Each structure stands twice: as C-alpha cells, then as structure tokens.
Amino acid sequence: MNLFDSDKFTKEYNHERKIEVSEADLLSIEKLNDDQRHAFNIITEKIYSSSSGTYFIDGPGGSGKTFLYRALLADVRSRGYIALAVATSGVAAALLPGVVVFGGDYRQIAPVVVGGKKEDTIDASFASSLLSRNFNKLSLRENMRAKDDPMFTEFLMRVGNGTETHVLDDRIEIPNNMILPFVESHKSLCDLIDLVFPCLDLFLTNPLLVINRSILAPKNDCVDEINEILIDKFPGELKHFVSLDKTRDPSLQGQYEDFLNSITISGLPPHILTLKVGCPIMLLRNINPIEGLCNGTRLICRGLGEKVIHAEIATGHFKGKQTFIPKIPLESPDKRQCPIPFTRTQFPVKACFAMTINKAQGQTLDFVGVYLREPVFSHCQLYVALSRAKTGNSVKVLIQPPTIEDKVVTFIRNVVYKEILYLANQE
C-alpha cells in the first residue's frame, strides 16, 4: 500500500508542513521536568538517528503529557521534520513509518463497551492488548497540574489507584474542604451553580476568564438539567432551534415523528436546542479536526443565525479562532438508545456550562463542581472528575442523597478496575 495514495493523509500532511512553530512551544523544551526531559531525550534521539520505535507515555492526569507532546512537536518541526499529530488509532499507527508515540493514563476512563460488563471493558482496554507489550513505556510521575497542593495530589493518586481507604463497601470519604453541604435537592444544586458561576455576565465581557469553570456529572440527564437552569439564568435573548427528524424508513415517518421529537439521545443535540449569544457550547461531532473543530471542542457563541452559528474556539491550540457551524444531518446511534433508526438535522452542539465526566477527560479546569445525584459507575470516573482541578480548594462535590441510616455522610462510591492497572504495569 502506498501511504501517499490517501487523500486524507495528503491533506493532513500538507497542513502539518504549513504549521509555524511558536516561540512559546520552543521555549517549553527548557521547562520540562526530569521525567518529561528523560522521555523527550529518548524519543528525539530515536527520531534523529533515523531509527524506528514505538513508545507509550504513561502519566496520571495533570502530569504534563500534553506539554511534553507540544515540546516534541515543536522540536521536530523546527528542524524540518514532519510530525503528524493524530488521534489514537491502531490504523493510523500502522500506516505511519518512523517513531510513533502514544500516551495516556490507565487511571482514566476506560473504553465504553455498549451493553458490556466489567470483563468486556477490561478486555477492550489497551492494557489487555498484546500490542501493548511491544511499546517502550516512559512514565511521568509528577503532577504538574496540582503541584501547589501536594496533599491533594496524593489523595488523587490513592483514588485513581483504588488504594484510598474504603469506609463502606466500595465507598471512600471525601475531605471536608471539598464537600458542599447538602440542604435540599433543588437548593443545594442552585448553591453549587452559584459557587461555580458566581457571575454569568463575565461570559459576555471576558469569557476566557470563566470558560474553564464547569460542573461535572456522571450522566447526561443531570448535565442537561444543569445546562437548562444556567441557560435560563444567562443574560440575553433565548433562541430556539428546532431539528428536522426523519426516519430512515420513510413509511414510518408519520407514525414516529412526534416520538422522535420528544427524545434526547446521548451524542445527539436536542430536538429543540436553546442557546443565547455569549453562552458556552460544545461540539458533538468532528467537523474539521485540522482546524480544531473536534468532538468535545468548547466554543463561545458569537452570533446565532437560523442556518449557521458564529462561534469562537475557547480553549486549546486554536483558542480565539472564529468559525461558523452549520446544521448537519446526524445519524441516531445503536438501537439500544433508540429502536427506530433516524436522522436528526440540527446544529451539532450543546450548551456546556456543565458536561459529563467522560467529556471532561484531558481538560484542566480552574474550578470544578462535581454533582453526584447518582454515584459514579465506571472505571476511575471519580478520579477523572476530581483531577480536573489544580487544588483541593478549587473543587466542590455535592453528594445526593447525603444520608445513610439518618446520618450525614461525606463518602461516595469509587469504581476502580484494578485488573487494568495490574495489566498496565506488566513489563
């Protein structure tokens, strides 16, 4: 197979050749800590000796994996070499010659196996793959995100490793300084919202100051409830955008159209999308990854038209870039969520004052509210939620229900599949 026969590869290749290396990225090389420097030296030595190699950079949340990637890309590109930054994909890795670098954290969200059990999730993990044994493992141990709060860092590692003391079954106790006292369901949720977003007007005057504040919850129904409350409180005029829902079998359209209009499905925008100018939104599809428009990209609404949304990318390498998002046809997911296959034509976005814990993976936030109306349910969800913050004082957890046998508690479920961690540590 000729690698350059692929139109997609050629597009990404041409894009990469045009990238200008910023001075900030080049200077980041001098700021690498000892573990980052060790990995950097090993990988670049392999690259510049024209050898092949495969590496896996393993590090907990906040250990500076992205910082290291940027330093590697900057160094390689500044010397005239081609460096392709791609999403994790076995296919992509198989196609690319030279040195391939993967990275991740086995303490973070495991692969989602629809309808699967614990054993299926473990089997789907990269740690279970025979390929993982062929990677040279490089470890980042220092938490750069939370380095100013060593007690918080140690607590996070115990949570992620599943070694924090269990006080009841699989429940652990959360430090008091991270707990938001529970009063009553609605009032307590409003208290959490006010704590995370004390001044919504800042989204209009200086959105970059508040875009990195968010409320996280395990499931979409809680996230949608919080976003509805906040979009209503947000200053400005409400705009409603109605989707066009069509069954794939035209003969079923009349029978099921009202039903399809009434449902909200994970991964799809709602039938009636409610937004305001200035509010934060999140993309739900990969529209143009090369230009920063990926599933999970957060943006600020700058204008709302009937056929297009004018938005500004709010985070990451493309922060500040203006873009326009059209309505597009979106296919319904598997039959477990909806038995009737259909297409929803809608803007591929949702409001994102709040987001699911899974969507927050990989992000650093200035202030985090964790809303646990229901307990976490998958591998290391609690660890991912808590580790988005930089200090213990910049995260607040609201637990509901907060009582067991009429006693107020500050402990919650912590799900850790130690089998994955064990496999990951095998040489």
UniProtKB/TrEMBL annotation:
GO terms (BP aspect): DNA recombination; DNA repair; telomere maintenance
Transmembrane segments: 80-102
Cofactor(s) this protein cannot do without: Mg(2+)
InterPro entries for this protein: DNA_helicase_pif1-like_DEAD, P-loop_NTPase, Pif1-like_2B_dom
Domain of life the protein comes from: Eukaryota
Keyword ATP-binding: yes
Annotated catalysed reactions: ATP + H2O = ADP + phosphate + H(+)
Family matches, as Pfam families: PIF1 (PF05970), Pif1_2B_dom (PF21530)
DNA helicase Pif1-like 2B domain boundaries: 258-301
Entry annotated with the keyword Iron: no
Keywords from the named record: ATP-binding, DNA damage, DNA recombination, DNA repair, Helicase, Hydrolase, Membrane, Nucleotide-binding, Transmembrane, Transmembrane helix
DNA helicase Pif1-like DEAD-box helicase domain: residues covered: 31-98, 99-165
GO MF annotations in UniProt: 5'-3' DNA helicase activity; ATP binding; hydrolase activity
EC number: 5.6.2.3
Entry's family note: Belongs to the helicase family.
Name the record gives this protein: ATP-dependent DNA helicase
Naturally occurring in which organism (per UniProt): Sesamum angolense
